[in-house]
Amino acid sequence: MHIVTSFPPYFVGFLHSLLVSPTYIYVAVIALFFGLITNKFAGVIIIPVLATAIFLAAQIIGPVMLNHAALAVPAFDLALAKTAVAAYIVFLVLDTVVFAIKKLILKIID
Predict the structure, then answer these.
(1) Domain membership flag for residue 2
(2) Does 58 have pLDDT greater than 50?
(3) How far apart are CA 65 and CA 109, in angstroms?
(4) Of 2-16, 28-42, 92-106, the least confident
(5) pLDDT given at position 19
(6) Closest CA to 67 of 6, 21, 33
(7) How many domains does the chain have?
(8) Residue 87 covered by a domain
(9) Rounded to whole angstroms, what are the CA distances from 6 to 2, 15, 73?
């Protein structure tokens, strides 16, 4: 335990927030999965819409399953729309990177 407490406080805080809020894990898993199933470049534009929907559903259902909280449907307002647009942009970038790396590796293998 001494090894973990000897890290700088900002790193320990980052690890704590990562373990408390599974948002980063949701994003990484969803982006990796949808980036790997994308076959064509046109899918890079369309697939992040599905990834955003899955992410928003995970944001709603995640606390219910992890913390045994009550299911609360979010209000459909401007904040949710901004979150959806931001998630779409993040998934667009991450899926494009994963798709490009996958194509590069497949080109090297062939």
Answers:
(1) no
(2) yes
(3) 41
(4) 2-16
(5) 58
(6) 21
(7) 1
(8) yes
(9) 6, 13, 41
74-104 per-residue burial string, b: 16 or more CB within 10 A, e: under 16: eeeeeeeeeeeeebbebbbebbbebbeeeee
Residue type at position 51: A
Residues in the chain: 110
Q: Which tokens sit at 104?
A: 């590069």
- The answer to whether 26 and 58 are in contact (CB under 8 A) is yes
DSSP string, 40-80: STTHHHHHHHHHHHHHHHHHHHHHHHHH-PPP-PPP-SHHH
3 state SS of 7? coil
Helices and strands (DSSP H and E) totals, the chain: 5, 0
Kindly state whether residue 4 falls inside one of the protein's structural domains: no
